[in-house]
Amino acid sequence: MIDASRMVTIAAIEGGVPLLVEARAVIATFQAMIRKKAEGELDGWIERARTGVVASFASGVVKDRVAVAAASSARTANSVSNISRIRVGRQRVDVGLAVRIPLPQD
Description:
72% helix, mainly alpha
């Protein structure tokens, strides 16, 4: 939950940068679509997102359409994290290894 002072700050920022309002709405729609597993709404969302501030994100969704479809139909509590896992795997990063590597000590 966002407290009142943060809401005022967000409103001030969005008032000065109207494109952020649209970007937030498009991303919120994407998150809701994934949560409710509404894969059928993806094409319409992509068309809307391609013309706005989040066009590069929409291009990434198009490139990873199989992963997005899998995440939206997965039976998990957090399908959005499934997309992240698939994208990390696509970049050939061994997440398990990365977690076990100790940080250098100063």
